[in-house]
Design brief:
Order of helices and strands of chain A: EEHHHHHHHEEH
Largest sheet of chain B: 6 strands, mixed
Distance between the termini of chain A: 38 Å
Number of helices of chain A: 8
Strand content of chain B: 5-15%
Strand order of the largest sheet of chain B: 1-2-3-4-5-6
Mean pLDDT of chain B: 89
Distance between the termini of chain B: 117 Å
CATH architecture of the largest domain in chain B: Alpha-Beta Horseshoe
CATH superfamily of the largest domain in chain B: Ribonuclease Inhibitor
Number of helices of chain B: 11
Mean pLDDT of chain A: 89
Number of domains of chain A: 1
Structural class of chain B: alpha/beta
Oligomer: heterodimer
Radius of gyration of chain A: 19 Å
Shape of chain B: elongated
Number of strands of chain B: 6
Structural class of chain A: mainly alpha
Strand order of the largest sheet of chain A: 1-4
Number of domains of chain B: 3
Number of strands of chain A: 4
Low-confidence stretches of chain B: none
CATH topology of the largest domain in chain B: Leucine-rich repeat, LRR (right-handed beta-alpha superhelix)
Chain lengths: 225, 314
């Protein structure tokens, strides 16, 4: 499936596939549920939301390799000097169009995915000193489990900072640059004027996403059972 | 959802809004999470950390209970519910949900509520599987809070008596072996000649105890003299009921490490007692049933040696 972006400027063109958008908002919801459940002591809910996050993150890494054009790491990961050049252009009041993630946004995606994966991985070995331990905590020593629990707590603070930076950056595009990034992440479509001339986006088949998600969910469930 | 931007701001104004929102957000978290708020204020140098006095009731009685039962989860390494109980300042700050100690009001203090719950309760502290506080320990914390949770008060009326902690030294077999080495050969030889009457006072010590009462009248002055090679190692000697006489006085005078000597029901008297005057380590002497007289015992008693048994008046 392919989107031809050569269309009238006021027309809206599809840039995000459904799996990427569902991933994004599911991630938001699950991070919130994970925080709330841990805060309120509902550790069974926390376990399930954590494992769901694991499945979701594994899916995203897979989708970054085999998904639609704008979902692929190769589309939004750029060399540091290109990312710096992009930031300089933006700071100077210039504008650079990208159909998917811009270079700075791509960096944020990778940073968030990495920290979230670290958060989920340490959670598997963590304990709450009371009645709850992560499903793999028994495979490490108590000291190791306690150390990973501390990292689990620190990683959450890093996630909060990254999420805030992400929201600030999205707000910057929205309010300063006049580029709405939230709407397309919901509808999948962007105004033609905000998409580079001649950009071609190839969309992967949804069945591939379903198959990948099922495999990732099975892997996460295997850890539990 | 429309993809049109709502409005357009300059970068400078937007950054100002972000800075304001960030500040308000941090302030909100500081209010909602007092423990975080205290950390921020302390970091900014706007809040002092109150310290408890070394001889206060808190330091002497309460802090040790927190260390024993609580700081594993509420201490430097872990802060469950963002609560630390490893210092007076932290304890008074409280945790995620605010103060857990309300000075003067133990009934309303969350800490008291949690440590007073029955063991099966999910909210009981310490949690299931950990050693609960004893009733006396709960009382110590309750009366401290009732008395104002002071960092300085040294004495609170009605506090359960403090039971001193008894610690046993770790067994160091190598060290004990090294200490025993100089006399080990003689100990082995005499133990073979007189089985069952010569033992070390403890597993960590090189000090010896000689209990000749088991041999009764079969243990004579000559037998006691056989133990002279161990004169610097025997700490306690029980010769009660043996055939030891005044003739052993010179032998006793050379038992320089002796702390305790029992001569009950022996044919000893003033000569033996007088010979003990040179033993600076001697702390206890039993003379029941001997011929020892008060004048002979007087110098020892004056020196602080505990004399057990009636001495003859003359």
């Amino acid at each position: 499936m392919q989107t031809d972006t050569a269309a009238p400027p006021d027309e809206r063109v599809r840039v995000w596939d459904a799996p990427t958008r569902l991933f994004h908002w599911s991630l938001v919801a699950l991070v919130f549920v994970s925080w709330l459940s841990a805060d309120q002591g509902y550790m069974t809910v926390h376990l399930w939301s954590g494992l769901s996050l694991l499945a979701l993150l594994l899916f995203r890494f897979g989708w970054g390799l085999m998904g639609s054009t704008t979902s692929r790491f190769s589309d939004f990961l750029h060399a540091p000097h290109k990312t710096l050049a992009y930031l300089r252009t933006m700071a100077g009041g210039g504008r650079v169009l990208h159909a998917g993630h811009n270079p700075a946004g791509g960096l944020m995606v990778v940073a968030l995915l990495a920290v979230l994966l670290a958060q989920v991985a340490t959670g598997l070995f963590a304990n709450d000193s009371l009645r709850f331990s992560g499903p793999l905590a028994l495979f490490v020593s108590d000291d190791a489990s306690d150390g990973l629990t501390r990292i689990h707590g620190i990683a959450f603070d890093i996630i909060l900072v990254l999420v805030w930076l992400h929201v600030v950056a999205v707000g910057f595009h929205h309010f300063v640059k006049g580029d709405n990034l939230v709407g397309p992440m919901v509808s999948g479509k962007k105004q033609r004027a905000h998409v580079p001339e001649g950009a071609t986006i190839i969309f992967a088949h949804p069945a591939l996403a379903l198959g990948l998600l099922a495999a990732c969910a099975a892997l996460a469930a295997w850890i539990l059972f | 959802m429309s993809s049109e931007p709502l409005r357009s701001l300059s970068a400078r104004i937007y950054i100002a809004y972000v800075a304001l929102a960030t500040g308000l957000g941090i302030a909100a978290v500081m209010v909602l999470r007092p423990a975080f708020g205290h950390r921020v204020l302390e970091f900014a140098g706007l809040e002092a950390m109150p310290k408890a006095m070394a001889k206060s009731f808190y330091t002497q009685r309460v802090a040790s209970l927190f260390a024993q039962h609580c700081t594993g989860c509420h201490g430097q390494d872990r802060q469950k519910a963002e609560l630390r109980l490893d210092s007076y300042a932290f304890a008074m700050r409280g945790g995620r949900h605010g103060a857990v100690i309300l000075p003067g009001n133990p009934k309303a203090s969350a800490l008291m509520t949690r440590i007073s719950l029955p063991a099966g309760d999910d909210r009981a502290m310490p949690p299931e599987g950990k050693t609960p506080l004893s009733p006396d320990e709960v009382t110590v914390i309750r009366i401290w809070i009732a008395g104002g949770a002071s960092p300085t008060t040294a004495f609170i009326k009605g506090a359960p008596r403090l039971v001193p902690e008894v610690t046993f030294p770790e067994l160091d077999a190598d060290a004990a072996r090294r200490m025993r080495a100089p006399l080990a050969g003689e100990v082995a030889r005499l133990s073979a000649l007189y089985p069952g009457i010569l033992v070390y006072e403890s597993r960590n010590s090189a000090g010896l105890e000689l209990n000749a009462t088991l041999r009764g009248q079969a243990f004579s002055d000559a037998d006691l003299k056989a133990f002279l090679p161990l004169s610097g190692g025997i700490l306690r000697m029980d010769l009660s009921g043996t055939a030891v006489t005044e003739a052993s006085a010179p032998v006793l005078a050379r038992m320089t490490a002796l702390k305790s000597l029992r001569l009950a029901d022996t044919k000893t008297g003033d000569a033996a007692v007088s010979a003990l005057a040179a033993l600076k380590s001697l702390k206890s002497l039993t003379v029941t049933g001997t011929a020892a007289t008060k004048p002979a015992l007087a110098p020892l008693a004056k020196r602080g040696v505990e004399i057990h048994g009636d001495a003859n008046a003359d």
